Amino acid sequence: MQTHWEALAAVAATKESCVAIDAVQDRVAELEAALKALLWDCPRGIECNDMHHAKPDWHNGDQPCKPLDRYRQAIDNAEAIFNK
User: Fold this and answer.
1) Which residues does 51 contact at the CB level (< 8 Å), separation at least 6?
2) End-to-end distance of the chain based on CA atoms, in angstroms?
3) 9-47 burial, b if ≥16 CB within 10 A, otherwise e?
4) Rounded distance between C-alpha atoms, residue 70 and residue 68, angstroms
5) What is the average pLDDT value for the chain, to the nearest integer?
6) CA 42: distance to chain centroid?
7) What's the CA dihedral at 22, 34, 32, 77 to 10 degrees?
8) Is 8 within 8 Å of 15 (Cβ atoms)?
9) C-alpha distance from residue 61 to each of 5, 46, 48 (Å)
10) In this predicted structure, what is the pLDDT of residue 71?
11) Over 80: is that where the pLDDT of 2 sits?
């Protein structure tokens, strides 16, 4: 059986956990709003020539464009978050 002091310590720890959870939920809401804003404003009709190609990403015209593939995958992943 818990002593009075142990019970008070457990209540205090629970309150601290609730405050921490609230802070995390607030941060998640801020990040979701920022992600929505980015999705709203990011261009959709871009092509390979619109992308920056670091030297490892250089390719011929008949090869896939890795920067464009990563960009489109990032958009798809972000949209999937909101479509769950």
Assistant:
1) 65, 67, 68, 71
2) 44
3) eeeeeeeeeeeeeeeeeeeeeeeeeeeeeeeeeeeeeee
4) 5
5) 87
6) 15
7) -150
8) no
9) 72, 16, 9
10) 94
11) no
66 Cβ contact list (under 8 Å, min separation 6): 57, 59
What tokens appear for 19 in the block? 């405050």
CA pair distance 17, 10, nearest whole angstrom: 10
Q: What is the pLDDT of residues 8-45, one digit of tens each?
A: 666 666 777 777 888 889 999 999 999 999 999 998 89
Q: Is this structure's pTM higher than 0.90?
A: no
CA separation for the pair 29, 39 (Å, rounded): 15
